[in-house]
């Protein structure tokens, strides 16, 4: 295998790096310069930031439920990507196994949705 097969990948990395450097270098010259107190304050999800007690305040359970839901669906995507890449080579057994996996995750999703775990109240 020759190194010429990697030229498009190196070119893409170079283009991405040049775009990143250009964006960072041009932002002070192009961006708006109207500063005010609201823009300089810390922002925490639409809630006024309050100092947390040193002993550690309690987080609501919904915070942890949302984090666990993210992990579940993130792991699902991690399993789906290699399966999709090698779909033709795996055959019908892998197809039905993935249908069962997606069905299981969908049942968990439906349960959480039904219980109100996705409500942001």
Name the features.
121 residues; mainly alpha; flat
In short:
This protein has 121 residues and is mostly helical. It is 67% helix and 0% strand.
What does it look like?
The chain is mainly α and 121 residues long. The protein has a domain of 67 residues: NADH:ubiquinone/plastoquinone oxidoreductase, chain 3 (Methane Monooxygenase Hydroxylase, Chain G, domain 1). Helices cover 67% and strands 0% of the residues. The chain is flat, with a radius of gyration of 23 Å. The termini are far apart. The mean pLDDT is 82.
Q: Could you say which overall geometry the principal axes of the C-alpha atoms support?
A: flat
CATH class of the domain at 55-121: Mainly Alpha
CATH homologous superfamily heading of the domain at 55-121: NADH:ubiquinone/plastoquinone oxidoreductase, chain 3
Note the beta-strand portion: under 5%
Count the helices. How many?
A: 5
Structural class: mainly alpha
Question: SSE order in H/E notation?
Answer: HHHHH
Q: Please name the CATH architecture of the domain at 55-121.
A: Up-down Bundle
How many beta-strand elements?
Answer: 0
The overall pLDDT average reads 82
Characterize the biggest β-sheet: none
Uncertain segments are: none
The whole-angstrom Rg is 23 Å
Measure the end-to-end span. 57 Å
Overall helicity: 55-70%
CATH topology term of the domain at 55-121:
Methane Monooxygenase Hydroxylase, Chain G, domain 1
Topology record:
Blueprint: H1 7-30, H2 37-40, H3 61-85, H4 87-90, H5 92-115
Helix pairs in contact: 3-5
């Amino acid at each position: 295998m020759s190194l010429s097969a990697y030229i498009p990948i190196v070119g893409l990395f170079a283009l991405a790096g040049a775009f990143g450097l250009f964006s960072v270098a041009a932002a002070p010259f192009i961006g708006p310069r109207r500063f005010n107190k609201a823009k300089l304050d810390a922002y925490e999800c639409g809630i006024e930031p309050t100092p947390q007690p040193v002993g550690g305040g309690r987080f609501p359970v919904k915070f942890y439920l949302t984090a666990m839901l993210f992990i579940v669906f993130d792991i699902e995507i991690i399993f789906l990507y290699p399966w999709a890449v090698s779909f033709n080579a795996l055959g019908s057994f892998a197809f039905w196994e993935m249908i069962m996996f997606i069905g299981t995750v969908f049942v968990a999703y439906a349960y959480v949705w039904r219980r109100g775990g996705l409500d942001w109240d």
